[in-house]
Amino acid sequence: MKRIISIFALVLTVSTTFAFSGPEPVSSRALNTFSSEYIGANEATWTISKDFYQVAFTLDGQKMFAFYTKSGDFIAVTQNISSVHLPNSLKKSLKKLMGNRWITDLFEVTHDNDTSWYVTLESADQKIVLKSNGGKWRIYQNMEKK
Questions:
Q1: Pick from 90, 101, 92, 99: which is nearest to 138 by CA?
Q2: 69 plus 100 within the same structural domain
Q3: Residue % of the chain over a pLDDT of 70
């Protein structure tokens, strides 16, 4: 299950588009689970991929993304955040790791009351994605720019 969450995070980080599998309807269980879990959600837009459903929505003014299995089970929810909303220990350690890089993406993933944070740091020639489960940052992905 952690691997699935990591895959979702990577997809969001590198802004990859989903491969559509046709005009398949979203399962009623996923729709019901979403509507009961996110009461008051607005602008819900469903995307169907080969292995899961994604719903982009706004709740209390915050853009969020929830993921469900094809059978309608909740997987995780993500939301972009500002660095000021990181736990203090992560904020401090991130400042030390940044060097001459800048933040281009920062979001949190919540699954079963477990929260992880992903941050993308970029420089002129490098892009690094870091992940933390609340302890220390670790390199999740490292890419050279061309």
A1: 90
A2: no
A3: 84
